[in-house]
Amino acid sequence: MNAFRMAVVTAGLACLAACGSQPEPTPVQTDPVVTVDPVWPHDVSDLEPDPAVHYGQLENGMRYAILANDTPPNVASVRLVFNIGSLAESEEQRGLAHFIEHMAFNGSQNVPEGEMVALLERYGLQFGPDTNAFTGYDTVGYQLDLPEADDDTLDTALFLMRETADGLLLDADAIDRERNVILSEERVRNTPIRRWNNALTRFRMPGTLIPDRDPIGLVEVVETAQRDAFLDYYENYYVPQRAMLVVTGSIDPEAVEARIEEKFADWNGPETLRPDPDLGTLTLGRPFSSGFFYDPEIFTILTVDAVRPYEARPDNAATRLETAYSELGDVILSRRFDTIMSSGTSPLLQAQVSTTDDYELAERSTVLLVSTPDRWQEALELAEQEVRRALIHGFTQAELDEQLANLRTGMRNAAERSGTRTTDGLADAIWSAWRGDRVFTHPEAMLERFLINEDRITVDAVNASFRARWDNVEPLIFLSNSQEVEDAQSQIRDVWVQSYSQSVEPPEDFSSVEFAYQEFGEPAEVVTRTEIEDLDYVQFELDNGVRVNFKQTDFRDEQVRVRVDFGRGKLEPSVRPYVDELAGAIFTASGLEAHSADELSSVLAGQQVGVDFSVGADNFSLSGITTPTDLDSQLNLITAYFTHPGWRPEGFSQFASIAPEIRRNLYGSPGGVIQAEVSRLLRSGDMRYGFPSAEQIEAISLDEIIAYLTPVLAEAPIEVTILGDVDEATALAAVQRTLGALPKRSTAWPMYESRRQVSFPAPAAEPVELYHNGVDYQGMANIYWPTRDAFDTREAREIALLRAVFDLKLTQRLREQEGFTYSAAVDDTLSYVFPDYGYLWVGVDVQINNLDAAYQAVEDVAAEIVAGQISEDEFLRARRPILEGIEERFESNGWWLAWLARSQAQPQRLDIVRTLVEDYQAIEIADLVEAAETYLDPDRAWRVSIVPRPEDG
């Protein structure tokens, strides 16, 4: 009997440790190591690195990688990454690695405080999407995505990265001003999931440094740490020997290499390098262990870990084959859990099986399950029995074939699309490979290696890999729950022991089944074909009434996007509120008549085919991303949802089970309350918005959902949009054979004018007060100003640019000047569905004692704008990122799909695209001031404060 199974037999015995029945735990000690080795992973591997990447290292030890790439054209990405993070902090520095990341934007030797972000905005970078940084346990990184790859912009980016490397001032007064911003981020991050993760880490890795080095740090350190502590970390860890610079994009690699040499060659670290941190001792070979975490807002999460000693292995062909065995076993077991969940009666809401290493201290395989709070025991039984079933009976050839088909397809698609990999994605993949000690290989080489080794990937090999990870290992089990569990550790032990007493049968084998829906009738004929020359796309109308929009692009090789719009979405009448919400959640989860959603995963294995169903404000849509080869299958699947929807009750049951957990999570933070309640209140209580209560869900039946969707599926006009790397004849023929073969569709559909009436809430003297269940110091001030609908596109763009200026000014006031918040949320929503409806929103996360001050600060900034206090610099810094973003979106399949969809039913969408750049270029400061005078009236605003729920509430 192996030790994993033996644990459940002996777990309840009091003499477990005293009787000497367990092996002595093995301590693992990490020795201090200085990371100065200049070798790249590919220098000691038989794997060939991507030949297009140019690697180098300066004499000071700084590594760099350069890659020319033209997707999208004329842009570049720059990354500066350090192989150190919060684990290197002393006890008095906890949180300073992250704090220093913030200070990088607050002044350096050659950039005054507050000017770095402004400088980047002048070059068209938007703070957040294009300018960002991150801090992890063992990595700190800075990232710039440049909208132009010209010499001036690239030189500026490299200059700023060098300033970050060794030129930060870390001014004491600037540190003091930033403290509240960091504390604001701590408030936002202080979620049940974060608290659970910290507790789980402490359970998994006792005796090590990891549980005590959450990158956000300690509040008391953030509040009090002095400049010397910052300098100590910065000067000893921001050193060239720990750094890697990555530049990708529309660049000349030789010229970039010369610039890197020029700007970074004289960067020098201290004479004596500080070693890597001592991570402590992790005891392996622990006996059966369990832990429990309670939080009233947490999901019910079970983790079952099998932990083994870490074994350092180079990244080479043999290691990758072993990893493939391991990953395939994890995916197959995950797939078994998916099948269990699809029954609609399972306690499981989510399941995942994975294998990773924990900071080179241990290798860990994990089953993670999310269940309903009252059924965690059943979930734990499933974990025990399914792992044991895999250990005893192994996996089947059919299961392996399914996953190999998916793996093969994924690799082939990656290889075929490798010519249009995105510049920012490549930059991140290159540094991530370095940090993971992996060779950055080309997708074509990965596919070639897979095809050579495919015959070696056998069921026996996958089974052996799984058993090697789970056999002879005592399980470590951790439970989180929103309900208190008395004597939780004993209960976990008892459930495990009881589960083991039940026998497990071999898995049911299954044979491959063909997709049942491949013929839909006589293909349609084309009635009209219209070329829209200025936008380079074609419109068709078929003789059954189906309309088609087609645009061929070369933005992404071998990618085709499909979207099918029909009906009026939330405007469609239903017998009670939230039928539309449930319809959106369960329609595809119910599968098809001949295939359950679970079976579809097997039937469609090896094809890039899938369907997302969306219920919009005035439309339904079925969409998917596929390849030219799989376009026929993609349209077969979409068409089958029109002709043979499954309407299985298990889809409804799954949503009913998960809804309480979604609701609890929403009320765990102010942002969730906005989704759950504010979205409805903003429309004066319109029940098509917000999240339904338990009683509202319980009142809805599956028959009501069927009645809601069936007429639309059968009769509503259909407009298909296909866009991507496929020719017109192929795309049109695929539509004619599938959706074109449906019975003739209605030529008109009700507009439901009476359901297009939505009103903004009446202003109130005092903010409405709503409650969240999160931490007791977290509050959120929200102001909504009513605007207008989106039908006047020029005015809509003035409001959007006004919002961008507002955002700039609020960042300066709330973050830089007041230190209230990490960042304010600023957004504008103008409706294309509801006449005269729209709003501009500012949301500010603050300590609850700063709510009034936050409202006042926002209203002060609004008053400044109304008074015309917009500088030319602010105006340009707000507009240029918008214009640069538009230029990038013109090279995006997803963006074109969004605007060309429904362009025959709503031809005004084409004018929106045509006038986009022209409108923004024509807007002047005076236009924004006029818009502010019209809309930023404090007497018309609606305010809502989201505060902690009172103890008696």
What does this structure look like?
This protein is α+β, with helices and mostly antiparallel strands and 953 residues long. It has 4 domains: 226 residues, 2-Layer Sandwich (Cytochrome Bc1 Complex, Chain A, domain 1); 224 residues, Metalloenzyme, LuxS/M16 peptidase-like (Cytochrome Bc1 Complex, Chain A, domain 1, 2-Layer Sandwich); 218 residues, Cytochrome Bc1 Complex, Chain A, domain 1, CATH 3.30.830.10; 191 residues, Cytochrome Bc1 Complex, Chain A, domain 1 (2-Layer Sandwich). The protein is 41% helix and 18% strand. The protein has a 7-stranded mixed beta sheet, with helices on both faces. Strand 11 and strand 12 form a beta hairpin. Helix 17 crosses helix 23. The protein is globular, with a radius of gyration of 29 Å. The two termini are 54 Å apart. The N terminus is likely disordered.
Q: What class, by secondary structure content?
A: alpha+beta
Count of the separate structural domains: 4
And the CATH topology of the largest domain?
Answer: Cytochrome Bc1 Complex, Chain A, domain 1
Q: Strand share of the residues?
A: 15-25%
How far apart, in Å, are the first and last alpha carbons? 54 Å
Count of alpha and pi helical runs? 31
Low-confidence stretches: 1-36
What's the average pLDDT? 93
| Biggest sheet statistics | 7 strands, mixed
CATH class of the largest domain: Alpha Beta
Q: What is the 3D form?
A: globular
Number of strands: 25
Q: Bin the helical content.
A: 40-55%
Strand arrangement, major sheet: 14-15-16-20-17-19-18
Radius of gyration: 29 Å
CATH architecture of the largest domain: 2-Layer Sandwich
Which homologous superfamily in CATH is the superfamily of the largest domain? Metalloenzyme, LuxS/M16 peptidase-like
